[in-house]
Amino acid sequence: MKKRTTYIIIVVVALLLVMLALFSNSDFVNTEQLSTNMEKASFSSKDKKAGGTYVAFKTLPELFAGRPVQVVAKPFATTYAKEAELHGSYNAYIIVANELFATERDVESMLYYASLGNFLFISVNRMDPLLAKKLKFTVVDGENFQQKKSNTAQRYKDSSLNLDTAFSYMGMISGSYFSSIDTATTKVFGMNYKSRPNFIGMAYGDGFVYVSLNPYTFSNYFLLHQNNIAAQEIQMSYLPNDATNVYWDDFYCHQYGPQSGDFSQWQVLMRYPAMRWALWLAVLLLLLYVIFEGKRRQRIIPEKPALANNSLEFVDAVGQLYYQQRNNYNLAHKMIIHLLEYIRSRYYLNTNHLNDQFVEALAKKAAMPETTIRELFSMLHQIQLAGEVSDEQLEHFYQLIQHFYLNTK
């Protein structure tokens, strides 16, 4: 009992420490949400911090005629295999992440999706090399850094739209750029802070693919600075505002390395801090339950010895009585006692008066001829009145009783 109380005290103290740690971290979380540090930008649609894309995701429906934006949390190939609507045309699919880690199957699905007359928009700091090879362009990975004063972060230029504008803010600057492109099918629509191309668009089959090397233009900090929301409008203007379906990818922004093995639903659960805490807390509570409930709460119940089978002892006693003492009357008397007890317990009849009424009642309940019952009890009366029983009488009486036992209902 003392040990159990000690365990409970330890667990309660541990839980209190965990709760204090969580509450003490609340100020840290609020400070982190107000911070403008973007060195670890998540580009997640649910992240409201500086490096998240919560603002971009929430304002996206306004740029597509109010159409709802569908969030995708699985690899492109998996989504493409299950979503029949992606096999149509005039759909828009948007990927914003720090780095694109795509499998060969993902790349094949993306390009086939675009060739059907759809629009694929990718904005990443580092491009997948296989996809870059398929689209015939080369990327030079530049250095990303957080600037200390407001300088030009992104410039857009498109002569066909009479567009030439630049945007600035005090946030992360992307240094990656395209060193070579297929000029026959690809156009440059944007440049980085060094005036090097970092936003291109190209025709692929019946559709289009757009690639930007500055995902920070979708970050909360960038879009909320002055009128930078126009940068998102410019980029999305290359996609049809009346697209059949609009998809926002929320999978690749959580990938920090090449995909290994089959995609698991646990990857979606474990990528969110709140969900991870909930799962680990559930595991902890389950462990505590096993520790405390696994112990016995009562004394061990002693084993109850099995009931002995005394029937063989009874048979042996009867045999000795009959063969050794040769007391037929005593044996017949015991047979009568057992017979009457059998009738009382099975047919609930009073055996004090073995008269005609008793014989008639027993014959009906036992479903036997009345003559058979009368013969049995006539023999029973003779044995009770006589002081001695011969071997022949005992054998005959035994046969009548056995006939009664075997044929009654």
From TrEMBL:
Keywords assigned: Membrane, Transmembrane, Transmembrane helix
Transmembrane segments: 274-292
Protein name as catalogued: DUF4350 domain-containing protein
